[in-house]
Fold this sequence. Notes:
Elements: H1 4-22, H2 37-62, H3 67-81, H4 83-91, H5 99-112, H6 122-139, H7 149-154
Helix pairs in contact: 1-4, 2-3, 2-4, 2-5, 5-6
Amino acid sequence: MTTTPDLHTRSTTLREVVAGLDSGRSLPQLVAGFTDEDELLQALHGVWSRRLNGRIDLALETDDHDLAVSVGDAWLLTALDLPGVRRVLDEHADRPSLQPHFRVEHRTVAVAAGLATFDDPGSVSARIGARFVASLRRRSNIGETSTRWWRRLTA
Length: 155
């Protein structure tokens, strides 16, 4: 069980890591409050997901655009807000510990964009969402395999 002081330490540390990543630093190997790099990466994905989900919710409530356009804009704006986090997540995208998190993210994006439904199998909607995110990157000149794409967003 995590105690309140531990949660405060983790939250403070996570904010410092995010700020460092967004200023161009690399992912630290050991960070206070986290047992290993995988736990830190999962926490960073949590930061990304909360920001993305908030932007998607706001876009769906206020935008007059097509659902896919609104969700795509939300994803790209989140990448602009958290360029270091997005960069690190992309650099570690093949980590098994992150795969379930990416599947949920991709499924959420697909359903919100109207490209899949909650009735679709999770693996199907996750694939659709992954293709949608890949298309966003291509249309925005964000290379799928290059970790330099985030520099173009912030330039």
